[in-house]
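Sample entry (217 residues):
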Amino acid sequence: MAASVVLGIAGGTGSGKTTVARAIADRVGRKRVAYLEHDSYYRDLSHLSLDARRQVNFDHPDAFDTDLLVQHVEALAAGEPVLQPVYSYTESVRKTETVLVHPAPLIIVEGILVLENGALRDLMDVKIFVDTDDDIRLMRRLRRDTHERGRTMEHVLGQYEATVRPMHLTFVHPSRRHADVVIPRGGRNRVAIAMVSDGLKRRLERAARGGELETVG
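Predicted structure, serialized as tokens:
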């Protein structure tokens, strides 16, 4: 197969990066996309009690098995399928089942810290940071964690104050400087998403023809 293009999409919790990633995948064509979520690569905490798991800082780089994610991106880029882990957010453990991800012309790697890790960043051809106001991000996280992950409002707010916000300021937001493109307002910014998608489609067409890859935009 032709050389793959690796797209990294980062941004704070609730910034809309998943919405942006899916919108780009839709515009490029889902059959042409291999999609890896950094959240699937949380380290397994089954050796800890549930109370102990709740105390883990899930917004620190050490919470992720990023080495495995790097291996999977390299394998996909080499034309090999991978077994992406499946993580239980309610139990904070890695499930026994996996998801088979096939190689594709466009590899999307999405997560809050995908631009923070140098080894992972070096594999990316295009890097995007999704930038959204802090109050909007907090509201979105509150809704998500209470409705989808079985957390109480008190737990979500306590975690946000103790780890999410400090880690955003320490690791996530500083990684913005590595981005080639910054998309404000997340999935609502249809103009930016269209421009990036069009640039990626041109890049994929050139890669399919064996030509030199051009920059997005």
